[in-house]
Specification:
- It is a single chain.
- 58% of the residues lie in helices and 25% in strands.
- The protein is α+β, with helices and mostly antiparallel strands.
- It has 2 domains: 87 residues; 100 residues, 2-Layer Sandwich (Alpha-Beta Plaits).
- A 4-stranded antiparallel sheet has the order 1-2-4-3.
- The longest helix has 73 residues.
- It has 5 helices and 4 strands.
Length: 197
């Protein structure tokens, strides 16, 4: 009994306590090494890759937005091309400016000659040259029954070629239901390649 107390009091330690203490220190050291290695790995490897991935995702989103816009633009262009391909035969050029004006006035004459109207004047206005087309204009003055004038307006607006009434003035006359009408009628004609240059 005395020997046990003497050993404890003299500062000598038990080999099992020392081994447990060493084991704990090694374990703590290993845990610290693992934590430090993990932090270094995260800081030097994982974090830069996460940032790079975020940048790539942002670039990919921007590219997807651009692609969506390009698809929308392409669809719009295709729609415009489809509409133009339908309109192109209607506005195709049929010769010189004089030939175009002659054809235009003949078309108008065909429209009003079937109606019970009196033509007071037909005035050909100067041709307006735009970038890709020419705009022909004719001023027509007529008088007649209101129904005949309305029939003329309807026939112009439903004509197969792109002819339209740009201005219309109506005046009453002394005769009941008779009116005097003044029309500015225009037609668009495509320019040929030589005319566009």
């Amino acid at each position: 009994m005395w020997n046990f107390r003497h050993v404890v009091s003299s500062g000598t330690t038990n080999p099992m306590v020392t081994a447990a203490k060493n084991s704990r220190e090694k374990l703590l050291g290993a845990v610290v090494v693992v934590i430090v290695a993990g932090l270094l790995t995260f800081t030097l490897v994982v974090n830069p890759q996460l940032k790079e991935r975020a940048l790539r995702l942002e670039r990919m989103n921007q590219l997807e937005l651009k692609l969506t816009k390009m698809k929308g633009d392409l669809l719009a262009k295709e729609r415009i091309d489809d509409i133009y391909s339908q309109i192109e035969p209607l506005i195709a050029a049929n010769g010189t400016e004089q030939q175009e004006i002659s054809l235009f006035t003949r078309e108008l004459s065909n429209l009003y000659s079937r109606l019970n109207v009196k033509i007071l004047s037909v005035k050909i206005l100067p041709i307006s040259n735009e970038e890709f087309y020419r705009r022909l204009a004719v001023k027509v003055e007529m008088s007649g029954h209101i129904r005949s004038i309305l029939d003329f307006i309807l026939s112009v607006e439903t004509y197969r070629n792109p002819i339209r009434i740009e201005r219309l003035d109506l005046r009453a006359q002394e005769i009941v239901d008779n009116i005097r009408a003044s029309f500015l009628i225009t037609k668009v004609v495509a320019k040929t390649e030589t005319q566009a240059d």
